[in-house]
Amino acid sequence: MLKKGSLFQFSPDGSRVAVATPDGRLTIWDSSGEVYQQYSPSAHLSAEITTMAWCPAAKLKNSKKKKDIPEKADGSADIIALGTAAGTVVLYSVNHGDALTTFEAALSTVRINSVVWSNSCKSVIVGAQDGMVSIFSVMSLELLVRFSTGKEPVYSVSVTADDKHIISGSRKIKIWEVRNQSLVQTFIGHATEVRCLRCLDFNEEFYILSAAEEDRNLSVWKIDLNANAKKSATAHVTLSVNENVNDVGSVHVTEEEVITCVSTEQGNVSLFRFPIEKGKSKPYKPSNLVQIICESEGKLGTSIPIQASIVKSSDPLSLSLAYGSENKLVVEDLKLSELRSNHLLSRAMPTISIGAEERKDFTKVVKPQVPGSVKYLVAGHPLPAPAESPRKGVKRSKESTEVNTQSLEERIALLNSKTDLDTNVPKTDSLAQLLVQGLRSKDQSIILSVVDREDPQLINNTVKSLPVDYIVPLLSTLHRSIQTKGSGHYSYVLWTQSVISHHAGYLISSPGVQRDILLPLRDVVSARAANYLSVLKLKGKIEMIKTLMDKNKEGVDVATDKPPLLVYQDDSDDESESGNFHLPPQADYDSDCLDEYLSNAESSDEEEEEEMEVPGEIQENGTVYINGHDSESEMEED
Rounded to whole angstroms, how far apart are CA atoms 47 and 102? Predict the structure, then answer.
């Protein structure tokens, strides 16, 4: 179902219309246009109805074993499956007027987009926003199987007539086998999300009718169970609606052709009659177009929207229309044989009017018997008694004349004083009432105007005074805001910290909060803080290098004009005597002289050490040689 807002759907036999409003109310209208039943759960504000499906009427003649299908006396549908935005599926019984059971199909933050009944009325197939498809057993009230269809959300689901295959719609249409949850076939052809799917059986072959969001065509696909699952197939037939498709009311199959009615966003109904066995590249045009115009004072005015339609399998075939609004709905039947190509109906606008006669029937006025001696007082607020005139001989006190005797100048000065205006400005330290209003109506603008504040005192006071029923919705909203990409509001962290610290006991005792909110929130925080230590170390190193570079650029400033702090003088003669051996200043010679001087000094030292260490050598003739020289000859030369 593609419609956003209120949901309208006929029962399989066309005797009733179910209307689900965004505030969670479910209203059942009968064929006479009267309210048959209304259901409003206690927590309807936190569980918006997003999709619904009537249980199909039992058809014993189509089943091989009659015991496999629940037997119904009148053959009419009784149970409605309601999918909510809180991840639950509610089974509502029209006969009992209350909810029978509730299935948890997904997390509390995951939206249920589509529900459909199996043809055996024994199970419910659910498609969720997280891309999962779940099958629940109505008999045993348990989950049978759950499998993933991919990363994209599942916007619509359907099932074949033999209940052996499930069709899921996202941007692609996929056929799945129920037994092993394997992919059988894929259809590609829609550019947007496929939000409406219908499956029909024609001569033991299965076909699918699909419509996407903002799509002006209805595509018909032929299921081939022997085809390659990875290879995509093209559309078998195309139906040209020329208006944005809202919902496919019903599909009626005859021996020769298929009849289907399509509701559009403009409030019209297009009726198609076409053969389906042979494919056709050229699209089929509608055989009938039904419109309803409001007639006022003999002139045609605005159009009345048709909210739902269905083709009844009566004799002769008829088209049932439900037009109006969720407050007042009118149901009307039209014979298909009497419809023109452009069938225009003139009807009065459905409105709720309570006249004087109707009020008289429901209200009984009892007039009391009042005697004539009764005095009637004037209606209104009591007035103060008039001041008594002073008695003669009594003087008035001076205090009564001195009250409020301020001059005009003093009054103007009092009005213009800034001290009184500053001290008397109304202030608030809690926004609990405004936050409750936003959570109750799910108005994101109100909620964001409150949680964008970063005052710790205001946050703590608001969280302390917040009712317990709104703790989990507030924490869920904060979780979604923190998990969103690009969320850089520091106030969300402050609000989350305050909620967990002040209501830790309630959150621990609440079922499902730890699984649905706290654990995913911890994973988000851990994932975002995984690289915090490494980034912090890198920041410290960069700051240290930057500081050293700045110091090197500035240099060390030495003040040469200041006198030295300490001067030492020594008058010893040793310094003067040894001063001759000091080297000259570096400015008196260049680097080459210094190197030559150092090399000569090192070589002379090495020669002295060799003379001290090398002993004399004694030859055979008694002559002594010292370092290779004759000692006697050297002595004679000296």
Answer: 12
Is residue 464 within a helix (H) or strand (E), and if so which, with residue range?
helix 456-464
DSSP states of 140-160? TTEEEEEEE--SS---EEEE-
Answer for the pair 115, 91: CB distance below 8 angstroms, yes or no. Answer: no
Cα 211 versus chain centre, distance: 25
Alpha carbons within 13 angstroms on the beta-carbon side of residue 150 total 15
- What size, in residues, is the chain? 638
Q: What string of H, E and C letters represents the secondary structure of 233-248? A: ECCCEEEECCCCEEEE
Structure tokens at 293: 């115009």
426 vs 565: CA distance, rounded Å: 68
> Cβ(291)–Cβ(263) under 8 Å?
no
Percent of the chain at pLDDT exceeding 70: 69
Query: Rounded to whole angstroms, how far apart are CA atoms 310 and 77?
Result: 15
Burial pattern 67-94, b for ≥16 Cβ within 10 A else e, equals eebeeeeeebbbbbbbbbbbbbbbbbeb
Residue range 164-196, pLDDT digits in tens: 999 999 989 999 999 898 998 889 888 889 989
Where is 351: in which H helix or E strand?
Answer: none
State the Cα–Cα distance between residues 595 and 369, nearest whole angstrom.
139
